[in-house]
Known about the structure:
Order of helices and strands: HHH
Mean pLDDT: 85
Shape: elongated
Low-confidence stretches: 1-13
Helix content: over 70%
Amino acid sequence: MDHIHDSNPLQTHTHTHTHAETKAVINRLSRAIGHLESVKKMVENGQDCSDILIQLAAVRAALTNTGKIILKDHLDHCIVDAVNEHDPQALEKFKKALDQFVK
């Protein structure tokens, strides 16, 4: 597959692929959203701040673990495809995303 490389930063990648973990990621995000809604209710009900902080830490950990699944899936599929297709733009985009994720 030939790629046209120009300086357009909005250019999207031209390869297609499937993400093996999409269903697992969606399920984890749904659980994290539900958990966060529960934390919101804790705040609204004036529950103990220490308990709220512990629950927020659990939500943060769930999101981080979900991000790790996305990261591994991205490496296994998107980045492998980008390397095989000699797509340096995809690799640069990945590096920027990784910098944001590990902040």
